[in-house]
Amino acid sequence: MSRNLSWKIRSGQIAVVCAFMVIWQFLASRTGPMFLPGPASALRTLLDGLQRGWMVSHLWTTLLEVLWGYAWAVGVGLFVGFSIGASPLLFGAFEGPLLNLYAVPKVTLFPLFLAAFKLGIPSKIAFGAFHGLFPVAIYTWTAMRTMNPVHLKVARSLRLGRLETFRSVVFPAVLPGIVVGLRLGFNLTLLGVVLGEMFASRAGMGFLLMSFGAAFDASRILAVILVLFMLALAANALLLAFERRVKGIPELHLRVS
User: Fold this and answer.
1) CATH code of the domain containing 174
2) DSSP3 helix / strand / coil % (the chain, rounded to 5)
3) pLDDT digits over 193-224, tens only?
4) Does residue 257 fall inside a structural domain?
5) What percent of the chain has pLDDT over 90?
6) How many structural domains comprise the chain?
7) Quick one: 63 and 7 in the same domain?
8) With left for phi above 0 and alpha for psi between -120 and 50, is residue 120 left, alpha or beta?
9) In terms of domains, do 17 and 83 share one?
């Protein structure tokens, strides 16, 4: 990418952020701080929450649930994706039902998670993982099903074993598709955890949102939203950078002596 094009992209990104802040400030001035505090007020409340500590413990709870939920989502999603992608029988049997289940509003299933895992951290981890595993699995099996068959023919011609074929041919070929699923999976895991905290929890950022919403404390609501927004933005930026780096790697890496 040329330096001129990179500068134009950065300028556009900065312009979007500036436009958002200007619109936010304009709406705040029109409605009043009681209904929509401005950016400065929300930032002061956020810093107050971090300094006085009323937000810190809830933030750590949400981070713990998201990290555990994402770990489970990635593990289960990759297992399901590779299993279905490698087997025409499993692909034909399970692709349709899993895609239909993915289309179901998952919040309607939260009472089942609450009944199974009770009120506490495990139910939020499980609900977040349930949200996040679908894009990981779908992008994994899609990448495997659309992999160039020439790669496997080359591996067979070189008489590579199954493990070496997977390590040197299959995995590098499907990795660009997998990392897209990993990025989307994190976003949905975070969504699932916050939703679970909003409906049945005694801690977490979702719990704070519901508590401040009941008290109609708009300034603290926006402070919590800002923290969640920055968390999602930072994680998405890291995963997007990883995705771009992976897509720059050649698909086929045969390690033949």
Assistant:
1) 1.10.3720.10
2) 85, 0, 15
3) 999 998 888 888 999 999 988 888 888 999 99
4) no
5) 34
6) 2
7) no
8) left
9) no
CA distances from 32 to 35, 44, 46 (A): 6, 17, 19
CA gap 209, 36 in Å, rounded: 15
Read off φ and ψ for residue 253, nearest 5 degrees.
Answer: -125, 90
Are the CB atoms for 177 and 243 separated by under 8 Å? Answer: no
- Residue-wise DSSP of 177-200: HHHHHHHHHHHHHHHHHHHHHHHS
pLDDT digits 0-9 by tens, 96-127: 888 888 888 888 888 888 888 887 889 999 99
103 lies in the same domain as 192: yes
On whether residue 68 sits in a domain, the answer given is: yes
3-class secondary-structure state, position 160: coil
pLDDT of residue 8 exceeding 80: no
Instruction: For residue 256, count CB atoms less than 10 angstroms from its CB and return exposed for 0-12, middle for 13-18, buried for 19 or more.
Output: exposed
Dihedral sign for Cα atoms in the order 68, 114, 197, 192: positive
> Is 54 domain-assigned?
yes
Give pTM, 2 decimals: 0.85
